[in-house]
Amino acid sequence: MGLLIMAIVLSLVYKEASLVLGDLGTATSYDPPYTPTKCNGNRQDQFPPGNLFVAVSEGLWDNGAACGRRYRLRCLSGNNRPCKDGTIEVKVVDFCSKRPCPSTTIMSNDAFAAVSHSSDAKINIEYIQYIYILSLLLHVLLFESINFPYYLIFLQDLTRNATDIIY
């Protein structure tokens, strides 16, 4: 029973119990068509809700390991004060196809519009990759799911947005 209570508490704060790795870079936008991508070809299910996704430059690509990673980013500055307040979460779906890549990330039009007033600007961004630490929660929920199968549905919803799980 103690493990069940710990799982519930951890599930409520799992985003706060994340490791973060942050950096500064630049962003521009790119127009459709967005497929095929280097990550998942023509699959439409690779795109997150709201079309908040990016293609990344060589520095973030990591020989394809960047596919599926999620970053929280915000606009810091640019010409003519393009930044909107707030942050968004984007998913990496592609490698920048332009040589040289014009920025650290190339954002979908929807993602770029969420952080910038200007659709054709080059902006300075701060981005943070989230690495979710869910191993304890996974083990607890899998153990408890033997007696309580509805936890498996909760586990599936919880891990759907996790990009990397550290064991």
UniProtKB/TrEMBL annotation:
Coiled-coil segments? none
| Signal peptide bounds | 1-18
Record keywords, A-Z: Membrane, Signal, Transmembrane, Transmembrane helix
Q: Which SUPFAM superfamilies match?
A: Barwin-like endoglucanases
Report the domain of life of the source organism. Answer: Eukaryota
The answer to whether the entry has keyword Oxidoreductase is no
- Name of the protein: Expansin-like EG45 domain-containing protein
List the top taxonomic levels of the source.
Answer: Eukaryota, Viridiplantae, Streptophyta, Embryophyta, Tracheophyta
